[in-house]
Write a structure and sequence with these properties.
Chain lengths: ~550, ~230
């Protein structure tokens, strides 16, 4: 082998986007690419400019610097582009970086670029990586498409077919295969691949994979042991820190969880979800100063991204109020109303959460007026509101003499979480404090019982072969309990059973998928979600079960 | 990197200064490479440009190594062994020093099985191999050779030159970690220290978990000069 033996790739028909804030570097990349015949090159200085271009064109290759000066960095840009589906399945994303950083060992397929180019970028480095990744992405585009369609079983089949041809990317593919098996709820298969990998080398991602399985199966001590193998002595593996913190919270070890999150944030402070996790842990520890800082960061970091959601704002306002800073809490809600004005639910919450603030600072009349104005809206949306917001709101509503709205809100929370007695207890406590213990017990027990009965009746009807009636029942119940994960999965199960009998129906398939995905968002650890997705995929398709 | 009051400490400045220097050197190197690729320059100008390129790349590599060592020391280097194609490593490492070899009139070649793979952290090992190649090119008379072999589950990487070979004190202190700063060697010992740290991070798998990587220096080799060996389990 002699140097420069490699021929350049043919880039004459390749659409390329260069995202780079450093002018000299743009010129270098342009000149290098020109040597491979590239002429369709577009440039962006920053993430905002890149997003505008990505909205309009489907590029074949994106060369993106990790550090982009002002605004979002390359990693955030990639995540947003993927989230908004602005990339074609075959698009190659190469991240240019000055050095190897912790962001580069993020575990999930979704968050990784196709490859990293560490500066200095030379012709051979650029060409060999481009050739390799373009060929690889072409070959794997059908798998990528299947994943986008959330058809994990089809994706798994395609990966297996690739592996049978003794593909050169074998371990990339096996890692992907294990991730897909996790998504599809096929833990034994994922487990086998992680074990196989660990037999070859002490690989952080394989330990992480095993830990996720332990966590989902409720083996928290095993999960912790596996995660400690990665995090002890090295704080670069950020995703492992997040999972460790999650595990420690479940184990009730809040001090340790906060330490782990702080360590991860020290390495990479720009993750809004990690900041929000820290905020919650700190809140439960009574460390309101840390909680304030963390939620503020979470809000700021997520503001212009698809991760933006009302909860961190509400948490921030809650912590600020708990510290006696009503003005700051008001300001936070004003920000929420402005940042998310297009979201009716968020707007309602931004208004309603002022009720406890007014009450707290002695503005009872204003609280009263606001509660009266919002009462009907709140009752109408009671079942879709986040539980933590409801718990903050119910007490003040009782105090203002509106037990009807308070009861509707608490009943909604209990109905959505009928399998979790802690919600029932917290709701009952609020009724008791309002001197309405008996009324509360009756209403809440009724809500929980109704949920249980619907589940049981649905199962019974299904057993008797009366699928249509069962579906009618659970569909109606879904309107009452739109965030009840168990109900959603039961409903999905019945819909699939119906389709298995009568054939695939497009509307029902969509309804099923929506139920499964909402349930998965509510309870990410629910293994049944993956299994049902797999069964849904099989309905009316000629893929036979593995 | 900053204390609770948000005040930046000296480490922050050092790190950002290193990044800044590294970016400048990167740009400088690519201009120098382009200058060398142009026809028409006379021989003395080419020699000086090549010398400048060598220095710019050497310092650039040292900065990269310093950053990596800092991160390893502070326990946040994202050590990430993956299953890499050995031919890709060979090709990219040779290419990285090709301009330098050409301008110095040294014949550079490499040998590697086409389909062999090995588990290693690409960036770290690439850094070690390029450093060894550059060093060999500096001392070689006419030839440098890179050989990457697959050995069991591990990898052996040899860099040979036909120069005068390593001085005795370097051979005696086979363990570069103990070398420290040595002005006689014409360098700071950083390169060898870096190589030994990188080797040590790599561990075996399966029944070979206890094994870790190592570096060795020899004289003789296939070209009669110095030979640098990196072995990964």
């Amino acid at each position: 082998m002699t140097p420069r033996a490699a021929s350049p790739p043919d880039l004459t028909r390749t659409g390329i986007l260069i995202v780079e804030d450093f002018e000299a570097m743009r010129a270098i990349l342009r000149d290098l690419l020109a040597r491979a015949g590239a002429s369709r090159i577009t440039y962006a200085n920053d993430a905002a400019g890149a997003l505008t271009l990505l909205e309009r064109h489907r590029f074949d290759v994106v060369l993106c610097d990790l550090h982009l000066g002002h605004g979002k960095n390359g990693q955030q840009l990639l995540e947003e582009a993927r989230h908004r589906q602005l990339l074609a399945p075959h698009t190659v994303w190469l991240m240019v970086s000055a050095e190897k950083t912790a962001d580069m060992v993020a575990g999930t397929v979704e968050s990784r670029p196709d490859d990293y180019l560490i500066k200095p970028i030379t012709e051979t480095l650029l060409f060999s990586r481009l050739k390799r990744q373009i060929a690889k992405k072409r070959a794997l585009a059908p798998i990528e498409q299947a994943m986008r369609d959330r058809e994990y079983l089809r994706a798994l089949r395609l990966v297996e077919a690739e592996l049978e041809q003794s593909n050169p990317h074998a371990w990339d593919l096996k890692r992907l295969q294990a991730d897909l098996a996790l998504h599809a709820g096929d833990y034994p298969r994922a487990h086998a691949i992680f074990e196989e990998a660990l037999n070859l080398r002490d690989l952080p991602w394989a330990h992480l994979g095993l830990a996720k399985i332990h966590f989902h199966e409720g083996h928290l001590d095993d999960a912790r042991r596996e995660l400690r193998k990665i995090t002890d002595g090295n704080r670069a593996y950020l995703e492992a820190h997040d999972w460790l913190a999650r595990t420690l919270v479940r184990l009730g070890e809040l001090d340790a969880a906060q330490d782990v999150l702080l360590r991860a944030l020290d390495t990479s402070p720009h993750a809004p979800t990690r900041q929000a996790e820290l905020g919650e842990v700190a809140w439960h520890r009574g460390d309101l100063e840390t909680a304030t800082r963390a939620f503020q960061r979470a809000v700021d970091l997520a503001r212009d991204t698809p991760l933006r959601a009302p909860m961190p704002y509400l948490w921030l306002a809650r912590v600020q109020l708990a510290r006696g800073d009503a003005d700051a809490a008001q300001a936070t809600l004003t920000t929420l109303a402005r940042d998310m004005r297009e979201d009716a639910g968020a707007s309602l919450l931004a208004q309603a959460m002022r009720i406890p603030i007014h009450l707290r600072v002695g503005e009872r009349d204003r609280a009263q007026a606001l509660a009266a104005r919002l009462g009907a809206d709140l009752r109408a949306r009671a079942r879709a509101l986040p539980a933590e917001a409801v718990f903050d709101l119910a007490g003040p509503l009782f105090e203002l003499g509106d037990p009807a709205t308070a009861g509707a809100l608490l009943g909604g929370v209990v109905g959505n979480n009928h399998e979790h007695p802690e919600y029932l207890e917290r709701a009952q406590e609020l009724f008791a404090r309002a001197g309405l213990a008996d009324e509360g017990r009756e209403l809440l027990a009724g809500a929980a019982r109704a949920a249980t009965e619907i589940m049981n009746q649905g199962v019974r009807l299904a057993h008797e072969g009366r699928l249509d009636e069962a579906i009618q029942l659970t569909r109606k119940a879904r309107e009452q309990m739109p965030n009840n994960a168990r109900l959603l999965l039961n409903h999905a199960y019945l819909l699939i059973a119906w389709m298995e009998k009568h054939g695939r129906d497009l509307d029902l398939a969509l309804e099923t998928r929506e139920c499964i995905e909402t349930a998965r968002r509510l309870k990410p650890e629910e293994k049944r979600a993956g299994e049902l997705l797999t069964r849904l995929e099989l309905v009316g398709n000629d893929l036979e079960l593995a | 990197m900053s204390d609770s009051a948000g005040k930046l400490d000296i480490t922050t400045f050092l790190l950002s200064a290193i990044h800044d220097m590294k970016n400048s050197l990167g740009v400088m190197s690519s201009y120098l490479e382009e200058a060398l690729a142009l026809d028409g320059a006379d021989a003395p100008a080419r020699t000086r440009t090549a010398r400048a390129l060598y220095e710019a790349q050497r310092v650039n590599d040292h900065l990269i190594q310093l950053l990596a060592l800092y991160k390893i020391d502070q326990a946040f280097y994202p050590f990430d062994p993956e299953h890499h194609c050995l031919a890709d490593l060979t090709e990219e490492a040779l290419a990285r020093v090709a301009v330098l070899a050409e301008s110095a009139g040294i014949e550079l070649d490499g040998e590697c099985p086409d389909t062999a793979y090995g588990w290693f952290d690409y960036e770290l090992v690439f850094g070690v191999v390029v450093q060894a190649l550059r060093n060999a090119l500096h001392y070689a008379r006419a030839r440098v050779r890179l050989e990457v072999q697959s050995v069991g589950a591990g990898v052996r990487i040899l860099v040979d030159d036909d120069g005068p070979g390593f001085p005795d004190f370097l051979l005696e202190h086979g363990n570069a970690a103990r070398l420290g700063i040595h002005h006689q060697s014409g360098g700071t010992g950083l390169g060898l220290y870096f190589a030994s740290v990188v080797a040590g991070l790599h561990r075996g798998g399966g029944d070979n978990r206890a094994a870790s990587g190592a570096i060795r220096l020899e004289n003789g080799g296939s070209l009669g000069g110095g030979r640098f060996i990196l072995e990964l389990p």
